Amino acid sequence: MSAPAYPHTELVLRFDALLEALSTLAEQLRRSTLPLWVPLSDQELANEQDPRQKAIELYCDLWHQDGGDGRRTRSCHGLIAANPALLTAAEQANLAKTAFRLALSELKTEPKTLLEPLTQRPHSLRDALGHTGLARLHLKQCYRLIPVAERQPQRVGFNWYTSGRSIKRISVQQAQQKLQRMGTDKSHVQWQWDKLNHLQADTPLAQIQHQAPLIRANLRYHSTPQRQAMNLSLPLLFAYDPEQPFPDHNSPSLTPQSERQRQIRSDSRIDPEPFLPSLRIHLYR
Prior knowledge:
Low-confidence stretches: 1-7, 128-135
Helix content: 25-40%
Radius of gyration: 23 Å
Shape: globular
């Protein structure tokens, strides 16, 4: 029995299934005549961008843009009324996203090596959306799920959350290993290495990673449970109820205010001044 042309057949099948599911979602949304709200930038307004087409492109965007930061995802909030067929298409797309992610995680090869053959395959969805020539998959955008509400909310409040961070507790030895990988022959690393070596071996350290700003949506319903909160990187699809008006909502800016700073709590156990700046490592008070 001859070997397949591409050794990771399961990954290819999952990727093709993802493209097919997104194509179906795009077609259902394109046919829909139900109301929606997707905010447009000044440039998009000037170009007379169709909000429905913008939503389609957001849902189907799997690729890096030239010069884009691969650590960030392109995102936008919004509200889209959905009939059962559109909700089913979104559910199938989310299942396909999860299956593709699992298929990739089960393989031990470097993702870059695995994804190159995928990006060279014919992509009718990509071509239809005008993305011809983009050659790199954006995994975070492949993985993120389409937000869905099974009921129509009465009101949705959107707010930027700009102060998120993750805190990981690490040991002095782990910090030393991280600095060694950076190269202790560099003067700025050597300075931090010397500081670290003055600590007791059992001194706890905190490594802080500030998270990208995100939109939080607070949904309020007529019936119980009356409240629901979720983070949104894509417009929210909700089950349309023709007996209710389109949800009342605010309209925050498309980008967060950059000047907002996180206020330091007086009872914080972590020293706000970085102890090892290159690694975002802080001391506990």
